[in-house]
Predict the structure of Cytidylate kinase.
Amino acid sequence: MTHPLNIAIDGTFSSGKGTLSRRIAAHYGLACLDTGKLYRAVARDVLAAGVSLAEGEQAAVIAAQIDPSTLDDPYLKSGEIGAAASKVSVHPPVRAALLAFQRDFAAKGAVLDGRDIGTVICPDADAKLFVTADPEVRAERRYQELLGYGEDVTLAGVLSDLTERDHRDMNRRVAPLKPAVDAHLLDTTDLSIERAVSTAIRMIDAVLDANA
């Protein structure tokens, strides 16, 4: 391969793609970008500025000024910010404002995970995965995660929020959540993280070998 290796990992919320991406990046010696953190950071900064999440143009101005050094802010993992990020990410100007950042990151070789990596951000990625799991399983994973953060949530509420988020992600006008035509599906419903990682690496290696 004469160009930097790019691996695109898209999928549904709480399907395990973030953990998979970090493990896959470590396996191949690549940088990793959780693009969802960009949208969560935008949502955080929009709320902090007192701007409505419905104001796409104002949110885009904030997105263009995002500080990458704040992407590890623990607050970004909260349920409040996760829900807000799903709302701010539907705005085309916000997505456009973050496009260059993501592509610049990928240019050096990387694993990127998100909702539109294989379809919009890196359509020419060397390997693409689409990760999903049954909604009830994803809701349980997110519920346990939020409990670990000390949040007062119910499983029914988490499932309702997840279902609403899926619908919003899949039906937004720009860059809807969907598998790229050449993406390989990985269903993690019945997989441990170790099995999911090994399965994903086998899939990626097969694609890379076929295209060598």
